[in-house]
Amino acid sequence: MSVGDHIKSASESASKLTKRVVDAVEDKVDDVTEAVESTVRSAGSKIRDVAGRGDKN
User: Fold this and answer.
1) Residue 10 three-state SS
2) Percent of the residues in the chain that have a pLDDT greater than 70, as a whole number
3) Which residues are within 8 A (CB) of 1 and not within 5 positions of it... i.e. 6 or more apart?
4) What is the Cβ-side half-sphere exposure of residue 16, based on CA atoms within 13 angstroms?
5) pLDDT at residue 56 greater than cutoff 70
6) What is the spatial distance between Cα 26 and Cα 46, in angstroms, rounded to a whole number?
7) CA 52 – CA 1 distance, rounded (Å)
8) What is the pLDDT of residues 41-55, one digit of tens each?
């Protein structure tokens, strides 16, 4: 293998690793976003219940 081939191979490996890391971070961000949305909905529902409004939209 020539030096250029090694550089190309290393670059492709780095690119694949970067994609895996980005995908993992996006998955975690999605998980956290869902957890926050769920918590906000739950808190809003509890606040409406305490305020006596319930689900009377």
Assistant:
1) helix
2) 93
3) 9
4) 6
5) no
6) 30
7) 74
8) 999 999 999 988 766
What pLDDT score does 27 carry? Answer: 98
Tokens, residue 46: 């509890």
Q: How far is 45 from 55, CA to CA, in rounded Å?
A: 8
**pTM for the model:** 0.66
Residue 46 CA, chain-centre distance (Å), reads: 26
Nearest one of 40, 39, 45, 41 to 53, comparing CA atoms? 45
- How many angstroms separate the Cα of 35 from the Cα of each of 5, 42, 44? 45, 11, 14
Q: Which tokens hold the place of 29? A: 């961000």
